[in-house]
Design a protein that fits this description.
heterodimer, A: 300 residues, mainly alpha, flat, B: 274 residues, MetI-like fold, 2 domains, globular
Chain lengths: 300, 274
Protein backbone atom coordinates (compact mmCIF):
# COMPACT_ATOMS: atom_id res chain seq x y z
CA UNK A 1 0.00 0.00 0.00
CA UNK A 2 2.78 2.40 1.01
CA UNK A 3 4.73 1.53 -2.12
CA UNK A 4 1.61 2.13 -4.22
CA UNK A 5 1.12 5.53 -2.66
CA UNK A 6 4.74 6.50 -3.34
CA UNK A 7 4.43 5.45 -6.98
CA UNK A 8 1.23 7.45 -7.27
CA UNK A 9 2.75 10.58 -5.75
CA UNK A 10 5.76 10.21 -8.06
CA UNK A 11 3.45 9.93 -11.05
CA UNK A 12 1.50 12.96 -9.89
CA UNK A 13 4.68 14.93 -9.48
CA UNK A 14 5.78 13.99 -13.00
CA UNK A 15 2.39 14.94 -14.43
CA UNK A 16 2.43 18.34 -12.75
CA UNK A 17 5.97 19.08 -13.89
CA UNK A 18 4.89 18.18 -17.41
CA UNK A 19 2.08 20.72 -17.19
CA UNK A 20 4.35 23.44 -15.93
CA UNK A 21 7.28 23.09 -18.31
CA UNK A 22 5.75 24.25 -21.64
CA UNK A 23 4.48 27.47 -20.06
CA UNK A 24 7.76 28.21 -18.34
CA UNK A 25 9.64 27.49 -21.57
CA UNK A 26 7.47 29.95 -23.50
CA UNK A 27 7.72 32.50 -20.70
CA UNK A 28 11.50 32.16 -20.72
CA UNK A 29 11.65 32.66 -24.49
CA UNK A 30 9.48 35.78 -24.43
CA UNK A 31 10.85 37.37 -21.23
CA UNK A 32 14.30 36.11 -20.18
CA UNK A 33 15.54 35.94 -23.79
CA UNK A 34 14.68 39.59 -24.52
CA UNK A 35 16.01 40.67 -21.10
CA UNK A 36 19.43 39.15 -21.84
CA UNK A 37 19.40 40.61 -25.34
CA UNK A 38 18.59 44.01 -23.84
CA UNK A 39 21.48 43.92 -21.38
CA UNK A 40 23.93 42.75 -24.06
CA UNK A 41 22.75 45.48 -26.43
CA UNK A 42 23.19 48.07 -23.68
CA UNK A 43 26.91 47.21 -23.60
CA UNK A 44 27.36 48.12 -27.29
CA UNK A 45 27.08 51.38 -29.21
CA UNK A 46 24.52 49.69 -31.53
CA UNK A 47 23.00 51.96 -34.15
CA UNK A 48 21.84 50.92 -37.63
CA UNK A 49 23.95 53.53 -39.41
CA UNK A 50 27.17 51.88 -38.21
CA UNK A 51 27.41 48.26 -39.40
CA UNK A 52 28.99 45.98 -36.82
CA UNK A 53 28.26 48.33 -33.95
CA UNK A 54 26.13 45.63 -32.33
CA UNK A 55 29.21 43.47 -31.75
CA UNK A 56 31.50 46.22 -30.52
CA UNK A 57 32.12 45.54 -26.83
CA UNK A 58 35.27 47.68 -26.59
CA UNK A 59 33.65 50.25 -24.27
CA UNK A 60 30.94 48.24 -22.51
CA UNK A 61 29.91 50.90 -20.01
CA UNK A 62 29.98 53.93 -22.30
CA UNK A 63 26.18 54.07 -22.52
CA UNK A 64 25.78 53.92 -18.75
CA UNK A 65 28.42 56.61 -18.27
CA UNK A 66 26.64 58.78 -20.78
CA UNK A 67 23.30 58.20 -19.04
CA UNK A 68 24.55 58.85 -15.53
CA UNK A 69 27.00 61.68 -16.17
CA UNK A 70 25.37 63.80 -18.85
CA UNK A 71 22.36 65.92 -18.09
CA UNK A 72 19.52 64.67 -20.29
CA UNK A 73 18.90 61.37 -18.51
CA UNK A 74 18.92 63.10 -15.10
CA UNK A 75 16.52 65.66 -16.48
CA UNK A 76 14.12 62.90 -17.55
CA UNK A 77 14.36 61.19 -14.16
CA UNK A 78 13.49 64.41 -12.31
CA UNK A 79 10.53 64.99 -14.62
CA UNK A 80 9.46 61.41 -14.02
CA UNK A 81 9.64 61.87 -10.25
CA UNK A 82 7.64 65.08 -10.52
CA UNK A 83 4.97 63.49 -12.72
CA UNK A 84 4.77 60.34 -10.58
CA UNK A 85 4.56 62.31 -7.33
CA UNK A 86 1.70 64.48 -8.59
CA UNK A 87 -0.32 61.69 -10.20
CA UNK A 88 0.12 59.08 -7.48
CA UNK A 89 -0.57 61.67 -4.77
CA UNK A 90 -3.76 62.90 -6.41
CA UNK A 91 -4.92 59.40 -7.30
CA UNK A 92 -4.48 58.28 -3.72
CA UNK A 93 -6.45 61.20 -2.28
CA UNK A 94 -9.23 60.96 -4.85
CA UNK A 95 -9.34 57.17 -4.71
CA UNK A 96 -9.67 57.06 -0.94
CA UNK A 97 -12.24 59.88 -0.88
CA UNK A 98 -14.42 58.19 -3.48
CA UNK A 99 -14.07 54.78 -1.87
CA UNK A 100 -15.34 56.23 1.42
CA UNK A 101 -18.21 57.93 -0.39
CA UNK A 102 -19.23 54.82 -2.31
CA UNK A 103 -18.70 52.29 0.46
CA UNK A 104 -22.29 51.30 1.02
CA UNK A 105 -24.35 48.18 0.60
CA UNK A 106 -27.00 49.93 -1.47
CA UNK A 107 -27.60 48.73 -5.01
CA UNK A 108 -27.57 52.27 -6.30
CA UNK A 109 -24.05 52.88 -5.03
CA UNK A 110 -22.96 49.51 -6.40
CA UNK A 111 -24.07 50.58 -9.87
CA UNK A 112 -22.23 53.90 -9.49
CA UNK A 113 -19.07 52.04 -8.44
CA UNK A 114 -19.02 50.21 -11.76
CA UNK A 115 -19.45 53.52 -13.58
CA UNK A 116 -16.43 55.03 -11.85
CA UNK A 117 -14.25 52.22 -13.20
CA UNK A 118 -14.72 53.33 -16.80
CA UNK A 119 -11.66 55.65 -17.10
CA UNK A 120 -9.38 52.85 -15.91
CA UNK A 121 -10.55 50.25 -18.41
CA UNK A 122 -10.75 52.52 -21.46
CA UNK A 123 -8.04 51.81 -24.02
CA UNK A 124 -5.22 54.23 -23.13
CA UNK A 125 -5.20 55.60 -26.67
CA UNK A 126 -8.87 56.56 -26.29
CA UNK A 127 -8.06 58.32 -23.01
CA UNK A 128 -5.34 60.19 -24.86
CA UNK A 129 -7.67 61.39 -27.63
CA UNK A 130 -10.37 62.34 -25.11
CA UNK A 131 -7.89 64.64 -23.37
CA UNK A 132 -6.49 65.88 -26.65
CA UNK A 133 -10.02 67.04 -27.45
CA UNK A 134 -10.38 68.71 -24.03
CA UNK A 135 -7.00 70.44 -24.30
CA UNK A 136 -7.27 71.66 -27.91
CA UNK A 137 -8.87 75.15 -27.85
CA UNK A 138 -10.53 74.77 -31.31
CA UNK A 139 -12.56 71.69 -30.35
CA UNK A 140 -12.65 71.67 -26.57
CA UNK A 141 -16.01 72.09 -24.83
CA UNK A 142 -14.10 73.48 -21.83
CA UNK A 143 -12.52 76.24 -23.89
CA UNK A 144 -15.87 76.92 -25.54
CA UNK A 145 -17.44 77.37 -22.10
CA UNK A 146 -14.66 79.66 -20.89
CA UNK A 147 -14.96 81.61 -24.11
CA UNK A 148 -18.65 82.22 -23.36
CA UNK A 149 -17.52 83.93 -20.14
CA UNK A 150 -15.00 86.00 -22.08
CA UNK A 151 -12.02 83.96 -20.91
CA UNK A 152 -9.45 82.90 -23.48
CA UNK A 153 -6.64 81.03 -21.71
CA UNK A 154 -3.78 79.70 -23.84
CA UNK A 155 -3.44 76.02 -24.66
CA UNK A 156 -2.12 74.12 -21.63
CA UNK A 157 -0.30 71.41 -23.54
CA UNK A 158 1.87 73.83 -25.50
CA UNK A 159 2.84 75.80 -22.39
CA UNK A 160 6.24 74.98 -20.86
CA UNK A 161 4.77 75.55 -17.40
CA UNK A 162 1.45 73.76 -17.73
CA UNK A 163 2.20 70.84 -20.09
CA UNK A 164 3.35 68.49 -17.33
CA UNK A 165 0.47 69.34 -14.93
CA UNK A 166 -1.94 68.89 -17.86
CA UNK A 167 -0.62 65.36 -18.43
CA UNK A 168 -0.74 64.70 -14.70
CA UNK A 169 -4.41 65.72 -14.61
CA UNK A 170 -5.29 63.38 -17.47
CA UNK A 171 -3.32 60.53 -15.88
CA UNK A 172 -5.05 61.12 -12.54
CA UNK A 173 -8.44 60.91 -14.24
CA UNK A 174 -7.43 57.67 -15.92
CA UNK A 175 -6.08 55.89 -12.83
CA UNK A 176 -7.81 57.12 -9.67
CA UNK A 177 -10.33 54.23 -10.08
CA UNK A 178 -7.52 51.77 -9.39
CA UNK A 179 -6.84 53.14 -5.91
CA UNK A 180 -10.58 53.48 -5.36
CA UNK A 181 -11.14 49.84 -6.28
CA UNK A 182 -8.38 48.58 -3.99
CA UNK A 183 -9.54 50.66 -1.04
CA UNK A 184 -13.18 49.65 -1.59
CA UNK A 185 -12.18 45.99 -1.60
CA UNK A 186 -10.43 46.48 1.75
CA UNK A 187 -13.28 48.52 3.25
CA UNK A 188 -15.84 45.89 2.33
CA UNK A 189 -13.94 43.21 4.19
CA UNK A 190 -13.69 45.38 7.28
CA UNK A 191 -15.55 44.00 10.30
CA UNK A 192 -18.27 46.18 11.76
CA UNK A 193 -17.38 45.92 15.47
CA UNK A 194 -14.54 48.48 15.68
CA UNK A 195 -16.71 51.04 13.89
CA UNK A 196 -19.64 50.38 16.24
CA UNK A 197 -17.35 50.68 19.25
CA UNK A 198 -15.93 53.99 18.01
CA UNK A 199 -19.42 55.28 17.31
CA UNK A 200 -20.58 54.43 20.82
CA UNK A 201 -17.52 56.25 22.19
CA UNK A 202 -18.73 59.32 20.30
CA UNK A 203 -15.95 59.49 17.70
CA UNK A 204 -16.36 62.11 14.96
CA UNK A 205 -16.46 61.09 11.30
CA UNK A 206 -12.85 62.25 10.87
CA UNK A 207 -11.68 60.34 13.96
CA UNK A 208 -13.45 57.23 12.67
CA UNK A 209 -11.57 57.53 9.41
CA UNK A 210 -8.18 58.40 10.86
CA UNK A 211 -8.10 55.98 13.80
CA UNK A 212 -10.30 53.10 12.68
CA UNK A 213 -10.66 52.87 8.90
CA UNK A 214 -7.25 54.13 7.79
CA UNK A 215 -5.20 51.64 9.84
CA UNK A 216 -7.38 48.90 8.40
CA UNK A 217 -6.99 49.90 4.74
CA UNK A 218 -3.32 50.89 5.03
CA UNK A 219 -1.85 47.60 3.64
CA UNK A 220 -4.17 47.67 0.61
CA UNK A 221 -3.43 51.36 0.13
CA UNK A 222 0.32 50.76 0.26
CA UNK A 223 0.12 48.07 -2.40
CA UNK A 224 -2.10 50.29 -4.57
CA UNK A 225 0.32 53.21 -4.26
CA UNK A 226 3.32 51.05 -5.18
CA UNK A 227 1.49 49.59 -8.19
CA UNK A 228 0.51 53.05 -9.38
CA UNK A 229 4.05 54.28 -8.78
CA UNK A 230 5.48 51.57 -11.02
CA UNK A 231 2.80 51.96 -13.67
CA UNK A 232 3.16 55.75 -13.69
CA UNK A 233 6.65 55.19 -15.06
CA UNK A 234 5.11 53.55 -18.11
CA UNK A 235 2.65 56.29 -19.10
CA UNK A 236 3.07 56.50 -22.86
CA UNK A 237 0.02 57.16 -25.05
CA UNK A 238 -0.92 60.31 -23.10
CA UNK A 239 2.48 61.90 -23.66
CA UNK A 240 2.73 60.64 -27.24
CA UNK A 241 -0.61 62.15 -28.23
CA UNK A 242 -0.77 65.24 -26.00
CA UNK A 243 2.74 66.71 -26.08
CA UNK A 244 5.15 64.31 -27.79
CA UNK A 245 7.64 65.11 -25.02
CA UNK A 246 7.41 68.84 -25.61
CA UNK A 247 7.22 71.73 -25.67
CA UNK A 248 10.99 71.63 -25.77
CA UNK A 249 11.62 68.67 -23.49
CA UNK A 250 9.43 69.60 -20.53
CA UNK A 251 7.40 66.37 -20.69
CA UNK A 252 10.19 64.04 -21.79
CA UNK A 253 9.99 61.65 -18.81
CA UNK A 254 12.38 58.69 -18.63
CA UNK A 255 10.20 56.21 -20.50
CA UNK A 256 9.61 58.73 -23.27
CA UNK A 257 13.27 59.68 -23.34
CA UNK A 258 14.19 56.02 -23.86
CA UNK A 259 11.60 55.78 -26.65
CA UNK A 260 12.89 58.89 -28.46
CA UNK A 261 16.56 57.97 -28.13
CA UNK A 262 15.87 54.47 -29.44
CA UNK A 263 13.18 54.82 -32.04
CA UNK A 264 13.58 58.39 -33.26
CA UNK A 265 17.37 58.78 -33.09
CA UNK A 266 18.20 55.06 -33.48
CA UNK A 267 20.66 54.99 -30.57
CA UNK A 268 19.78 51.39 -29.81
CA UNK A 269 22.64 50.75 -27.42
CA UNK A 270 21.99 53.90 -25.42
CA UNK A 271 18.22 53.29 -25.33
CA UNK A 272 18.86 49.73 -24.13
CA UNK A 273 21.03 51.06 -21.29
CA UNK A 274 18.27 53.42 -20.15
CA UNK A 275 15.69 50.61 -20.38
CA UNK A 276 18.00 48.38 -18.34
CA UNK A 277 18.26 51.03 -15.63
CA UNK A 278 14.47 51.32 -15.65
CA UNK A 279 14.02 47.57 -15.26
CA UNK A 280 16.48 47.62 -12.35
CA UNK A 281 14.43 50.34 -10.65
CA UNK A 282 11.19 48.49 -11.27
CA UNK A 283 12.73 45.28 -9.94
CA UNK A 284 13.59 47.03 -6.69
CA UNK A 285 10.04 48.32 -6.29
CA UNK A 286 8.65 44.85 -7.10
CA UNK A 287 10.76 43.30 -4.33
CA UNK A 288 9.25 45.83 -1.98
CA UNK A 289 5.73 44.89 -3.12
CA UNK A 290 6.40 41.17 -2.74
CA UNK A 291 7.62 41.76 0.82
CA UNK A 292 4.66 43.97 1.71
CA UNK A 293 2.19 41.70 -0.08
CA UNK A 294 3.28 38.77 2.08
CA UNK A 295 2.04 40.40 5.26
CA UNK A 296 -0.49 42.72 3.70
CA UNK A 297 -3.74 42.30 1.82
CA UNK A 298 -4.97 38.75 1.77
CA UNK A 299 -6.75 38.46 -1.56
CA UNK A 300 -8.11 41.89 -2.35
CA UNK B 1 -29.45 57.46 17.79
CA UNK B 2 -30.30 59.53 14.74
CA UNK B 3 -33.90 59.79 13.69
CA UNK B 4 -34.83 57.78 10.60
CA UNK B 5 -36.00 60.65 8.35
CA UNK B 6 -32.81 62.62 8.94
CA UNK B 7 -30.73 59.60 8.05
CA UNK B 8 -32.70 59.05 4.84
CA UNK B 9 -32.17 62.68 3.97
CA UNK B 10 -28.43 62.43 4.46
CA UNK B 11 -28.35 59.27 2.39
CA UNK B 12 -30.18 61.05 -0.40
CA UNK B 13 -27.59 63.84 -0.43
CA UNK B 14 -24.70 61.37 -0.49
CA UNK B 15 -26.23 59.45 -3.36
CA UNK B 16 -26.99 62.62 -5.27
CA UNK B 17 -23.44 63.88 -4.82
CA UNK B 18 -22.01 60.54 -5.93
CA UNK B 19 -24.22 60.50 -9.04
CA UNK B 20 -23.24 64.08 -9.93
CA UNK B 21 -19.56 63.21 -9.51
CA UNK B 22 -19.93 60.18 -11.76
CA UNK B 23 -21.52 62.33 -14.43
CA UNK B 24 -18.62 64.81 -14.20
CA UNK B 25 -16.07 61.99 -14.46
CA UNK B 26 -17.78 60.43 -17.47
CA UNK B 27 -18.55 63.72 -19.26
CA UNK B 28 -15.32 63.68 -21.33
CA UNK B 29 -16.18 60.19 -22.62
CA UNK B 30 -19.73 61.21 -23.49
CA UNK B 31 -18.35 64.26 -25.30
CA UNK B 32 -16.23 62.02 -27.52
CA UNK B 33 -19.28 59.87 -28.27
CA UNK B 34 -21.46 62.82 -29.33
CA UNK B 35 -18.57 64.21 -31.39
CA UNK B 36 -18.51 61.02 -33.44
CA UNK B 37 -22.14 61.59 -34.50
CA UNK B 38 -21.74 65.21 -35.50
CA UNK B 39 -22.14 66.04 -39.19
CA UNK B 40 -19.02 66.67 -41.22
CA UNK B 41 -17.58 70.09 -40.54
CA UNK B 42 -19.59 70.52 -37.34
CA UNK B 43 -17.39 68.14 -35.34
CA UNK B 44 -15.57 71.14 -33.97
CA UNK B 45 -18.76 72.85 -32.88
CA UNK B 46 -20.23 72.79 -29.42
CA UNK B 47 -23.83 73.68 -30.44
CA UNK B 48 -26.07 71.56 -28.30
CA UNK B 49 -28.45 70.88 -31.20
CA UNK B 50 -27.40 68.94 -34.28
CA UNK B 51 -28.73 66.19 -36.48
CA UNK B 52 -26.81 63.01 -35.63
CA UNK B 53 -25.22 61.34 -38.61
CA UNK B 54 -23.27 58.19 -39.28
CA UNK B 55 -21.08 60.00 -41.81
CA UNK B 56 -17.93 59.62 -39.74
CA UNK B 57 -18.50 55.90 -39.30
CA UNK B 58 -19.22 55.48 -43.01
CA UNK B 59 -15.99 57.32 -43.82
CA UNK B 60 -14.13 54.92 -41.52
CA UNK B 61 -15.76 51.89 -43.14
CA UNK B 62 -14.67 53.10 -46.56
CA UNK B 63 -11.02 53.49 -45.57
CA UNK B 64 -8.41 51.21 -44.09
CA UNK B 65 -9.85 51.19 -40.58
CA UNK B 66 -11.81 47.91 -40.84
CA UNK B 67 -8.58 46.11 -41.74
CA UNK B 68 -6.85 47.55 -38.65
CA UNK B 69 -9.83 46.61 -36.51
CA UNK B 70 -9.61 43.05 -37.84
CA UNK B 71 -5.87 43.00 -37.07
CA UNK B 72 -6.60 44.04 -33.48
CA UNK B 73 -9.19 41.27 -33.17
CA UNK B 74 -6.86 38.64 -34.64
CA UNK B 75 -3.82 39.57 -32.56
CA UNK B 76 -5.82 39.86 -29.31
CA UNK B 77 -7.77 36.63 -29.82
CA UNK B 78 -4.72 34.69 -30.96
CA UNK B 79 -2.63 35.79 -28.03
CA UNK B 80 -5.45 35.11 -25.58
CA UNK B 81 -6.02 31.55 -26.84
CA UNK B 82 -2.32 30.66 -26.90
CA UNK B 83 -1.79 32.11 -23.42
CA UNK B 84 -4.69 30.05 -22.08
CA UNK B 85 -3.42 26.91 -23.82
CA UNK B 86 0.00 27.18 -22.17
CA UNK B 87 -0.94 28.99 -18.99
CA UNK B 88 -3.95 27.01 -17.73
CA UNK B 89 -2.17 23.66 -17.22
CA UNK B 90 0.77 25.47 -15.62
CA UNK B 91 -1.55 27.33 -13.26
CA UNK B 92 -3.22 24.06 -12.29
CA UNK B 93 0.13 22.42 -11.61
CA UNK B 94 1.16 25.37 -9.45
CA UNK B 95 -2.13 25.32 -7.56
CA UNK B 96 -1.93 21.59 -6.75
CA UNK B 97 1.75 21.00 -6.28
CA UNK B 98 4.19 22.78 -4.01
CA UNK B 99 7.19 23.17 -6.30
CA UNK B 100 10.29 24.37 -4.52
CA UNK B 101 10.76 27.18 -7.05
CA UNK B 102 7.21 28.49 -6.58
CA UNK B 103 8.28 31.68 -4.86
CA UNK B 104 10.84 32.42 -7.54
CA UNK B 105 8.34 31.75 -10.34
CA UNK B 106 5.93 34.15 -8.61
CA UNK B 107 8.61 36.84 -8.49
CA UNK B 108 9.42 36.25 -12.15
CA UNK B 109 5.77 36.69 -13.08
CA UNK B 110 5.59 39.88 -11.03
CA UNK B 111 8.64 41.47 -12.63
CA UNK B 112 7.26 40.58 -16.07
CA UNK B 113 4.07 42.40 -15.16
CA UNK B 114 6.02 45.42 -13.93
CA UNK B 115 8.76 45.79 -16.56
CA UNK B 116 8.43 48.88 -18.79
CA UNK B 117 7.34 47.88 -22.31
CA UNK B 118 10.24 49.81 -23.84
CA UNK B 119 12.57 47.22 -22.31
CA UNK B 120 10.80 44.47 -24.29
CA UNK B 121 10.36 46.46 -27.48
CA UNK B 122 14.05 47.07 -28.11
CA UNK B 123 15.07 43.39 -28.25
CA UNK B 124 11.83 42.33 -29.95
CA UNK B 125 12.29 44.99 -32.62
CA UNK B 126 15.88 43.91 -33.28
CA UNK B 127 15.12 40.19 -33.39
CA UNK B 128 11.87 40.57 -35.36
CA UNK B 129 13.71 42.67 -37.95
CA UNK B 130 16.16 39.81 -38.42
CA UNK B 131 13.62 37.01 -38.68
CA UNK B 132 10.90 38.84 -40.62
CA UNK B 133 8.28 39.14 -37.89
CA UNK B 134 8.04 42.95 -38.02
CA UNK B 135 4.59 44.08 -39.14
CA UNK B 136 3.01 40.64 -38.83
CA UNK B 137 0.14 39.35 -36.70
CA UNK B 138 2.14 36.35 -35.38
CA UNK B 139 4.79 38.84 -34.21
CA UNK B 140 2.20 40.77 -32.22
CA UNK B 141 0.75 37.57 -30.79
CA UNK B 142 4.18 36.58 -29.48
CA UNK B 143 4.78 39.99 -27.92
CA UNK B 144 1.39 40.05 -26.23
CA UNK B 145 2.23 36.73 -24.60
CA UNK B 146 4.89 38.53 -22.57
CA UNK B 147 2.15 39.92 -20.36
CA UNK B 148 -0.77 37.56 -21.04
CA UNK B 149 0.95 34.32 -20.10
CA UNK B 150 1.97 35.73 -16.73
CA UNK B 151 -1.58 36.98 -16.20
CA UNK B 152 -3.10 33.57 -16.98
CA UNK B 153 -0.71 31.68 -14.70
CA UNK B 154 -1.42 34.04 -11.85
CA UNK B 155 -5.17 34.45 -11.98
CA UNK B 156 -5.97 30.85 -12.94
CA UNK B 157 -3.87 29.56 -10.07
CA UNK B 158 -6.22 31.39 -7.73
CA UNK B 159 -9.29 29.91 -9.42
CA UNK B 160 -7.93 26.35 -9.27
CA UNK B 161 -6.95 26.74 -5.63
CA UNK B 162 -10.62 27.53 -4.93
CA UNK B 163 -11.81 24.23 -6.49
CA UNK B 164 -12.03 21.57 -3.73
CA UNK B 165 -9.75 18.57 -4.23
CA UNK B 166 -12.25 16.03 -2.90
CA UNK B 167 -13.83 15.48 -6.33
CA UNK B 168 -10.43 15.00 -7.94
CA UNK B 169 -9.45 12.46 -5.31
CA UNK B 170 -12.59 10.46 -6.07
CA UNK B 171 -11.61 10.37 -9.74
CA UNK B 172 -8.06 9.31 -8.87
CA UNK B 173 -9.31 6.45 -6.74
CA UNK B 174 -11.33 5.32 -9.77
CA UNK B 175 -7.99 5.15 -11.62
CA UNK B 176 -8.14 8.31 -13.72
CA UNK B 177 -4.85 10.06 -14.45
CA UNK B 178 -3.95 13.56 -13.28
CA UNK B 179 -4.66 15.31 -16.56
CA UNK B 180 -7.78 13.38 -17.53
CA UNK B 181 -9.16 14.23 -14.08
CA UNK B 182 -8.23 17.82 -14.71
CA UNK B 183 -10.06 17.89 -18.05
CA UNK B 184 -13.18 16.07 -16.86
CA UNK B 185 -13.56 17.35 -13.29
CA UNK B 186 -11.58 20.46 -12.45
CA UNK B 187 -11.60 22.44 -15.67
CA UNK B 188 -15.42 22.46 -16.04
CA UNK B 189 -15.70 23.70 -12.44
CA UNK B 190 -13.21 26.50 -13.15
CA UNK B 191 -14.81 27.44 -16.48
CA UNK B 192 -16.07 30.86 -15.29
CA UNK B 193 -12.54 31.64 -14.16
CA UNK B 194 -11.15 30.66 -17.56
CA UNK B 195 -13.68 32.94 -19.24
CA UNK B 196 -12.84 35.87 -16.95
CA UNK B 197 -9.11 35.37 -17.41
CA UNK B 198 -9.52 35.12 -21.18
CA UNK B 199 -11.46 38.39 -21.22
CA UNK B 200 -8.78 40.12 -19.16
CA UNK B 201 -6.11 38.90 -21.61
CA UNK B 202 -8.16 40.08 -24.54
CA UNK B 203 -8.62 43.55 -23.02
CA UNK B 204 -4.91 43.88 -22.20
CA UNK B 205 -3.92 43.03 -25.79
CA UNK B 206 -6.71 45.08 -27.33
CA UNK B 207 -5.64 48.13 -25.30
CA UNK B 208 -2.01 47.87 -26.35
CA UNK B 209 -0.71 50.87 -28.20
CA UNK B 210 3.03 50.96 -27.64
CA UNK B 211 4.03 47.52 -28.97
CA UNK B 212 1.85 47.89 -32.06
CA UNK B 213 3.21 51.37 -32.71
CA UNK B 214 6.78 50.11 -32.79
CA UNK B 215 6.37 46.63 -34.24
CA UNK B 216 3.84 47.21 -37.03
CA UNK B 217 3.85 49.42 -40.13
CA UNK B 218 0.92 49.04 -42.52
CA UNK B 219 0.15 45.38 -42.97
CA UNK B 220 -0.49 44.42 -39.32
CA UNK B 221 -1.38 47.88 -37.97
CA UNK B 222 -3.90 47.65 -35.12
CA UNK B 223 -6.87 49.94 -34.50
CA UNK B 224 -5.24 52.11 -31.76
CA UNK B 225 -2.32 52.89 -34.08
CA UNK B 226 -4.71 53.59 -36.96
CA UNK B 227 -6.41 56.26 -34.82
CA UNK B 228 -3.11 58.05 -34.34
CA UNK B 229 -2.57 58.06 -38.08
CA UNK B 230 -5.69 60.21 -38.48
CA UNK B 231 -3.74 62.83 -36.54
CA UNK B 232 -0.71 62.93 -38.76
CA UNK B 233 -2.13 64.56 -41.85
CA UNK B 234 -2.31 68.30 -42.28
CA UNK B 235 -5.86 68.79 -40.98
CA UNK B 236 -6.88 66.67 -38.03
CA UNK B 237 -9.89 64.56 -38.89
CA UNK B 238 -11.63 65.01 -35.54
CA UNK B 239 -14.88 63.36 -36.62
CA UNK B 240 -13.09 60.21 -37.77
CA UNK B 241 -10.84 60.21 -34.72
CA UNK B 242 -13.88 60.33 -32.43
CA UNK B 243 -15.72 57.60 -34.34
CA UNK B 244 -12.67 55.33 -34.35
CA UNK B 245 -12.19 55.98 -30.62
CA UNK B 246 -15.78 54.93 -29.93
CA UNK B 247 -15.35 51.74 -31.96
CA UNK B 248 -12.16 50.85 -30.07
CA UNK B 249 -13.63 51.45 -26.63
CA UNK B 250 -16.90 49.63 -27.28
CA UNK B 251 -15.69 46.01 -26.99
CA UNK B 252 -13.71 46.87 -23.89
CA UNK B 253 -16.70 48.40 -22.12
CA UNK B 254 -18.89 45.41 -22.95
CA UNK B 255 -16.30 42.89 -21.76
CA UNK B 256 -15.42 44.84 -18.65
CA UNK B 257 -18.99 44.68 -17.51
CA UNK B 258 -18.67 40.88 -17.35
CA UNK B 259 -15.37 40.81 -15.49
CA UNK B 260 -15.77 43.81 -13.21
CA UNK B 261 -15.55 41.69 -10.07
CA UNK B 262 -12.21 40.23 -11.22
CA UNK B 263 -10.59 43.57 -12.06
CA UNK B 264 -8.60 43.78 -8.86
CA UNK B 265 -6.90 40.41 -9.16
CA UNK B 266 -6.30 41.01 -12.87
CA UNK B 267 -4.70 44.39 -12.28
CA UNK B 268 -2.50 43.07 -9.52
CA UNK B 269 -1.60 39.85 -11.36
CA UNK B 270 1.07 38.54 -9.09
CA UNK B 271 1.59 41.48 -6.82
CA UNK B 272 -0.09 39.91 -3.84
CA UNK B 273 0.73 36.55 -2.37
CA UNK B 274 -2.19 34.56 -1.18
Amino acid sequence: MAAGRTAWSLERRRAFTLGLIPALAVLAVVTIGPALYLVVTSLTPLTPIRPGSGLDFSTPFANYRQALFTGSFDHSVWLQLELSAITVGLQTLLGVALALLLNSESRFMGALRTGFLVPMVLPPIVVAIIWKVLYTPDVSPVYAMLDAFGLRPGALITSPVWALPAIALADTWEWFPFTMLMVLAALQMMPNEPLEAARIDGASAWQMFWHVRLPYIRPALTVAVLFRLIDSIKAFPLIYVLTNGGPGRVTEVTNYYAFIQTFNFAYWGYGAAIATLMVAGVFGLSLLIARLGAGGVEDA
Amino acid sequence: MRSAPRRGWRRGITQGAAAALLLAVLAPVLWLVQMSFRPHGAALGADPVFVPTMANYRALAAGGFPASFANSLLASTGSTLLSLLFGVPAAYAMARHRFRARGRIAMWVLVTRMAPPVAFTIPFFLVFSDIGLIDTIPGLIIVYMTFNLALVIWTMRGFFAAVPTALEEAAWIDGAGVWSTFLRVTLPLAAPGVAATGILCFIMSWNDFFFALILTRTHAMTAPVAIVNFMQYAGWEWGKIAAAGVLVLLPVLVFTFFVRSYLVSGALAGGVKE
